[in-house]
Amino acid sequence: MRRYGKHTDEDDIRSRPNRKGTRPRTNIRPAHEDAAEGMVLTVDRGRLTCLVEDRTVLAMKARELGRKAAVVGDRVALVGDMSGKKDTLARIVRIEDRTSLLRRTADDDDPFERVVVANADQLAIVTALADPEPRPRLIDRCLVAAYDGGLTPLLVLTKSDLAPPDKLLELYGDLDIPYVVTSREELATGDAAGRVRELLDGKITAFVGHSGVGKTTLVNALVPEDRRRTTGHVNAVTGRGRHTTTSALALPLSDDEGWVIDTPGIRSFGLAHIDPSRVIHAFPDLEPGTENCPRACSHDEPDCALDAWVAEGHADPARLYSLRRLLATRERKEGD
């Protein structure tokens, strides 16, 4: 064995080469203060199309972001080639804080949540009044996700020429949810788009609905210059439609008056990720009454203080019924 004395020449010391390169490792990351601001329009197999000023730029996520993924609606910071030319690729180095978040799980037993849209102002829940039949439990679940994520819900009822909307609207009247009712004829003439448009101006609106309800047809009427493929055939046996939208896409309304985000058709909307205690925030007339509730109250048990709060005249009993119906959606399937 070779031994070294007190005055060993450094040239005599054998050093092992760094197989990962000679650059020293550091926890300091660049701030990218000169990064450009952009908005994610769509995501496709790891490539993100972003709007940077007045042009679309193809980008990928920087490795330093780790598992954090950008979704449609995200405000991001980009570096690299942002010319928007063919075969160029920028890099997303930062995802800005989100103002709202629409999330879902595959079902109520699935521990993995899926982020659908970020930074939307409202959630348009599109439901056909017939062909296919409306699914109130699915609507309830979308409402819970909207309230939890900080989005204002909006009901869009289609195909009113096949069935009247009164019965369905009665279920949600006490929630004070804005709504619009359309028919197939109005969609064809553009009248429906005009009335829906009044509720979208100046806002970012995400559209959700199960297949066959006419969601993408409505989006095409709202943004005719960016038409998406629509072949929403409804199976006569199952009452379900075929998915015509396969990825979420943000589309601008004309004159910079807002954005529409079309999302793929859904057949289930799991709520495993949602804490039921947060749903009460969507009921400001009931929330003060929870101060006397027992710890970890489900708001649907004998000792719940909301019963006394309503009995004293502080809120309408129908509102408490609506709250409890929404909270119960996690325990029921959408088709019930």
How would you describe what is shown here?
- With 336 residues, the chain is of the alpha/beta class.
- Helices cover 18% and strands 22% of the residues.
- Helix 4 (191-197) crosses helix 5 (215-222).
C-alpha geometry: globular
- What is the arithmetic mean of pLDDT? 84
Structural Rg: 26 Å
Largest sheet: 6 strands, mixed
Number of H/I helices = 7
Write down how many β-strands occur, each being a DSSP E stretch of 2 or more residues: 13
Structural class comes to alpha/beta
Low-pLDDT ranges: 229-244
Helix share, percent: 10-25%
Strand order of the largest sheet: 10-9-8-11-13-12
Order of helices and strands: EEEEEEEEHEHEHHEHEEHH
Briefly summarize what is shown:
This protein has 336 residues and is an alpha/beta fold.
Helix/strand layout:
Elements lengths: L35 E9 L2 E6 L2 E7 L13 E6 L9 E6 L5 E4 L9 E5 L3 E7 L7 H14 L2 E7 L7 H7 L6 E3 L2 H6 L1 H7 L5 E6 L6 H8 L26 E4 L5 E5 L43 H6 L5 H11 L9
Parallel strand pairs: 3-5, 8-9, 8-11, 9-10, 11-13
Antiparallel strand pairs: 1-2, 1-4, 2-3, 4-5, 6-7, 12-13
